[in-house]
Amino acid sequence: MGALSNLERDIRNKLNKTVRTVARNIMNDLAEAGPVWGGEFRDSWEAFAPGAGGAIPAAYPYTLSDIPNLPITQREMNRATKFIISNRASYAAVALDLEPPREEFRYPGYEPEGDVVFRGTRPAGGRRGNIGPKQKGGTDNRSTAPLDWYTTYVRGGKMQRALGKGVDLEFRA
Amino acid sequence: MNYQAIRAALENPLLTAFNSLVPAVPVFFDNITAVPPNTTTEYVRINITFGITNEPTLTSSVDNARGALIIRIFTEKGRGPARNQTLLTTAVNVLENLNNTAKPSTGTFMRLGEINGPTFSATDEAPHFVGRIDTSWVATVLT
């Protein structure tokens, strides 16, 4: 890498901080929008940085120090994918309502930490958030996030809004 | 913002398409739990979610609602994906037609984003093979 001027270095650092801020905001949004029973899923979001070669184990609420620093080399500045945000919980796809549970949910013996948004009976093989009215003789299930909360966040405009807010907060400051 | 008009603009063409099939395929929307558990009867589940209602600008607010549309097709498990994919095609055709509709002067104007999927799943417990697609939508109600 050729020598960078101080201005160039500042701009690159600012850009990286903006991207990290956006990633942090999205992780906090997802943690707040998603289901919370014991808190494991909420505390399992992470931002993997391909350019930095890893992710930092963290828990909600996520801070900027939970997001890896990015190199400011030209190669890394040109990288299209700066972060991959994912959830490391083994049952993440079920919590995201993308897959049905492989086995029936079991009551863990304690009440949910998050607010219950639906209570009733989940049909056999139904998604996590697929809870209808209580059926006679049916199960008594509770959900702490509506069905398809993740798809709604990603596809319904809120993630795009989080991106804009991150840029506003960091780059225009 | 007229949420019901937006919902109807998405639901009605899908309902019409599945009702027009022979035999008609039942469609269930949000807050309807008419599906008996453990049935092997095929059916369609459509969920419409709202993400954002408006887009504030410097001087006013544009009523561009945004959200997601999730379609799940339930067909009998253990008989291959063909029937499920046929029903998915019905849904995708409706969505593509919606995007090809000219902007009306009144009513609801809607555009859909890219269609994700289909993804397929099945579990030991449930009798169904499930195909899933989702897409984003943006809509405004014209006066």
Label this structure with key terms.
heterodimer; A: 173 residues; mainly alpha; two-stranded antiparallel sheet; two-stranded antiparallel ribbon; elongated; B: 143 residues; alpha+beta; STM4215-like; five-stranded mixed sheet; 2 helices; 7 strands; 25% helix
As for the CATH topology of chain B, it is STM4215-like
Q: Spatial order of the strands in the main sheet of chain B?
A: 1-2-5-7-6
Greatest interface and its participating residue counts: A-B, 27 and 29 residues
Shape descriptor of chain A reads elongated
Give the strand content of chain B: 35-45%
Give the helix level of chain A as a range of percent. Answer: 25-40%
H/I helix tally of chain B: 2
In the CATH scheme, the class of chain B would be Alpha Beta
Structural class of chain B: alpha+beta
Overall morphology of chain B? elongated
Straight-line N-to-C gap of chain A: 28 Å
Biggest sheet descriptor of chain A = 2 strands, antiparallel
Number of domains of chain B: 1
Portion in helices of chain B: 25-40%
Total number of beta strands of chain A? 4
Question: How would you describe what is shown here?
Answer:
The complex is a heterodimer of chains A (173) and B (143). Chain A is built from five helices and four strands; from the N terminus they run αβαβαββαα. Chain A has 173 residues and is mainly alpha-helical. In chain A, the strands form two sheets. Chain A has a two-stranded antiparallel sheet with strand order 1-2. A two-stranded antiparallel ribbon of chain A has the order 3-4. The model of chain A has no long low-confidence stretch (mean pLDDT 88). Chain B has one domain: 2-Layer Sandwich (STM4215-like). In chain B, helix 1 packs across helix 2 (82-100). Chain B is of the alpha+beta class and 143 residues long. The mean pLDDT of chain B is 89. In chain B, the strands form two sheets. Chain B has a five-stranded mixed β-sheet, with helices on one face. The chains are: A mainly alpha (173), B alpha+beta (143). Chains A and B meet through helix 4 of A and strand 2, strand 5, strand 6 and strand 7 of B.
